[in-house]
Write a structure and sequence with these properties.
The protein is an alpha+beta fold. The chain folds into two domains: 184 residues, Fructose-1,6-Bisphosphatase, Chain A, domain 1 (2-Layer Sandwich); 122 residues, 3-Layer(aba) Sandwich (D-Maltodextrin-Binding Protein, domain 2). Helices cover 35% and strands 20% of the residues. The protein has ten helices and twelve strands. The strands form two sheets. It has a seven-stranded mixed β-sheet, sandwiched between helices. Strands 9-8-10-12-11 form a five-stranded mixed β-sheet, with helices on both faces. A hairpin with a 2-residue loop joins strand 3 and strand 4. Helix 1 packs antiparallel against helix 2 and helix 2 packs across helix 4.
Length: 323
């Protein structure tokens, strides 16, 4: 199955959501960037509304498991937030009403089934506020596998190219990127260890998102001697898929032993890397479970590589954790 229709509609929806998110970011006063997260709320909900509307109209029988829902907005007495969200959505969909926008957001309240979409309307909240990296991540999961993944990364710059890309991968069809402003699609290929300038290591900006000491020790164990590149959001998957890094680790932070990853934080990125020739598992080498619940309860940590070093990384992790 080619998923051509699903791919076309999803790409269009993510591009439109990216336009909304960038408009919100342009309007954030500098004084609010570090103090007030309300712009993220506006962009999160606006992005989810646009994408869920498009998906539900085209595929009414496929549930959407999204990160947000409109419960708190509906219960709010001020109405200020929903007015802002609606105003931004209207810049993309002029006829949108407040009630419609709330309903579109809540289309994302679906449950994990045999076939469903999973959506993170803004992955990388703090990056968004800092005018840095964030991603709009959408994936279609069927029969326990990610079949289609789309990532919009409006702030991502790759090599000497322009800023802002969309990544797309269909199971068995390869992984591709295109500028968010349009143009030609280019096929992605992971990096080899011989390319010393690009065989790098990426990890999260936030220390709480992983075990940075162990992550850096593993990177050294596979021959990466340069400092890590720290990036917010699933943009890290795009960097690995594009061959600008050979390793991305998100190992459990010892301070949060019960934390489990959300499926929408990894589903789209994982297929983008795998279709570019890489490999994605948990820290024990187990495939990531996107089919059982909204959280990956049976997985611990995430290991993303160019494929060639994957077994070495898993072995190094096993040795370190057994000591």
């Amino acid at each position: 199955m080619s998923y051509q229709t699903e791919k076309e509609i999803a790409i269009s929806a993510v591009i439109e959501a990216a336009k909304l998110c960038e408009k919100v970011r342009q309007d954030i006063p500098p004084a609010l960037e570090k103090q007030d997260k309300s712009p993220v709320t506006v962009a999160d909900f606006g992005s989810q509304a646009i994408i869920c509307k498009a998906l539900k109209e085209a595929f009414p029988d496929i549930p959407i498991v999204g990160e947000e829902d409109a419960t708190e907005i509906r219960q709010s007495t001020s109405g200020d937030t929903i007015k802002k969200i609606t105003d931004y959505v209207r810049e993309i969909i002029p006829s949108a009403t407040t009630d419609q926008v709330l309903d579109w957001i809540d289309y994302g309240n679906g449950k994990v089934t045999n076939k469903f979409w999973t959506l993170d309307p803004i992955d990388g909240t703090k990056g968004f506020l800092r005018q840095d990296q964030y991603a709009i991540a959408l994936a279609l999961i069927e029969d326990g596998e990610v079949k289609l993944g789309i990532m919009g990364c409006p702030a991502l710059k790759l090599g000497t190219e322009e800023t802002g890309f969309i990544f797309v991968a269909v199971k068995g069809e390869g992984s591709y990127k295109m500028s968010l402003t349009g143009g030609e699609w280019s096929k992605l290929q992971v990096v080899s260890q011989e390319d010393k300038t690009r065989f790098r290591f990426v990890e999260s900006v936030e220390a709480s998102h992983g075990d940075q000491d162990q992550q850096n020790a593993i990177a050294k164990a596979v021959g990466i001697t340069t400092n890590s590149v720290r990036v917010d959001s699933q943009s890290k998957y795009g960097i690995v898929a594009d061959g600008e890094a050979g390793l991305y680790l998100r190992l459990p932070n010892p301070k949060y032993p019960n934390y489990r990853e959300n499926i929408w934080d990894h589903a789209a990125g994982s297929i983008v890397v795998e279709e570019a020739g890489g490999k994605v598992t948990d820290m024990y080498g187990k495939p990531l479970d996107f089919a059982s619940a909204s959280k990956m309860n049976d997985n611990r940590g995430v290991v993303v590589t160019n494929g060639l070093i994957h077994d070495t990384v898993i072995s190094a992790l096993s040795m370190m954790n057994s000591q």
